[in-house]
Design goal:
InterPro entries: Mal/L-sulf/L-lact_DH-like_ah (IPR043144), Mal/L-sulf/L-lact_DH-like_NADP (IPR043143), Mal/L-sulfo/L-lacto_DH-like_sf (IPR036111), Malate/L-lactate_DH-like (IPR003767). By secondary structure, the protein is α+β, with helices and mostly antiparallel strands. It has three domains: 1-61 and 311-342, Hypothetical Oxidoreductase Yiak, Chain: A, domain 1 (Orthogonal Bundle), CATH 1.10.1530; 69-182 and 227-286, Malate/L-lactate/L-sulpholactate dehydrogenase, NADPH binding domain (Ribosomal Protein S8, Chain: A, domain 1), CATH 3.30.1370.60; 184-224, 2-Layer Sandwich (Wheat Germ Agglutinin (Isolectin 2), domain 1), CATH 3.30.60. The protein contains 13 helices and twelve strands. It has a seven-stranded mixed β-sheet, sandwiched between helices. The chain has a three-stranded antiparallel β-sheet with strand order 9-8-10. It has a two-stranded antiparallel ribbon with strand order 1-12.
Length: 342
């Protein structure tokens, strides 16, 4: 059995933050990025955890991102709040714009946060969970790199185009869904490639448009949208709402701009916030209580609510720490060296 080393969530966050600082990232950016990376490990989502750290360092070393940019918030008091990330990482920009987004959602019942020119490298659940903690429902979405072919096509056009939704609950974790509109996240295919294992059927096609279980052929070819034409339509919606509508890159443009899919993409992001109390005010009903009726009915049938496995892993990690493999510890040690990427 492989020997594991357990570290606390706080200690791992400090370790990752120290690595980011050593590679030239400013303290606010390092804190925000480290928190998101370690949250992936904490929730046992390996494809969104320490695996993402090297990608953040590579894009910094290539000079294609800023680790010291200061997000600029534009809040004119309307329903749309904008944050210019200045080529920086999305978590710091979300942190900078969150208070204004929450305030505008409470003022108007709904509001939008537009993040411009950012690098998004991880899951979106962080955004909607943060809004749920404020009693707000939330939607978060962004394009990516053109790695996914439309349903019936074979040429990559869409990004994996993640999409997250959160709804607040009383006395429980919020209802949260977070998924790529591709069959799987690209990071999952990369993990299969590193492990030397085949990917499941139906995830991808090769450069000739033929189904493949070879992760190398999949990465060279195209990923597939989940649910066929339905997933393809949702991926298109995200390209339009979080790309074209914002005047930011869509996935094809993001890939052309960076010139390679080996570095994290730069694009925009869209986060929507809704105040359930404002929407239900004239109904005489409690929207949170009504939500519990539905969620309870789902659980009463023995069905598992989305993210429950992740919340269970979180509770265990907070109580017992995060177990890291020898390979993960070696990665942290290697990335701690100034010449790690040479």
């Amino acid at each position: 059995m492989e020997q594991m080393q357990t570290v606390t969530v706080e200690a791992l966050e400090r370790r990752v933050e120290t690595i980011l600082l050593a590679h030239g990232m400013s303290a606010p950016n390092a804190q925000a990025v480290a928190h998101v990376i370690v949250a992936g490990e904490r929730d046992h989502c390996k494809s969104h955890g320490l695996y993402r750290l090297e990608g953040c360092l590579k894009v910094l070393a290539a000079g294609k991102a800023s680790g010291v940019s200061v997000p600029v918030v534009q809040d004119a008091g309307g329903a749309i709040v904008e944050v210019d990330a200045g080529g920086g990482f999305a978590p710091a920009s979300f942190n900078a714009g969150k208070a204004a987004l929450v305030a505008r959602a409470r003022d108007y019942g709904l509001a939008a946060l537009v993040i411009r020119d950012c690098l998004h490298f991880s899951a979106l659940w962080h955004d909607v969970e943060a809004l749920a903690e404020e009693g707000l429902a939330g939607l978060s979405m962004c394009p990516s790199y053109a790695f996914v072919a439309p349903s019936g096509g074979k040429v990559p056009l869409f990004g994996t185009n993640p999409f997250a939704f959160g709804f607040p609950r009383k006395g429980a974790h919020p209802y949260v869904v977070d998924f790529a509109t591709s069959v799987a996240a690209r990071g999952e295919i990369e993990l299969h490639r590193r492990a030397g294992t085949p990917i499941p059927e139906g995830w991808a096609i090769d450069t000739e448009g033929r189904p493949t279980t070879d992760p190398d052929a999949a990465l060279a070819g195209a990923m597939l949208p989940f649910g066929g034409h339905k997933g393809s339509a949702i991926a298109t919606m995200i390209e339009l709402l979080a790309g074209a509508m914002l005047g930011e890159f869509m996935s094809r443009e993001a890939l052309d701009f960076m010139g390679t899919g080996d570095l994290l993409p730069r694009h925009g992001a869209l986060i929507l916030a809704f105040d359930p109390a404002r929407f239900a005010a004239r109904s005489g009903r409690d929207p949170i209580a009504e939500a519990e009726r539905l969620l309870g009915a789902i659980e009463d049938q023995g069905a598992r609510l989305p993210s429950q496995r992740r919340f269970k892993a979180r509770a265990q990690a907070l109580a017992e720490g995060i177990a890291l493999t020898a390979a993960e510890l070696a990665l942290l040690e290697r990335l701690s060296r100034p010449d790690a990427l040479r």
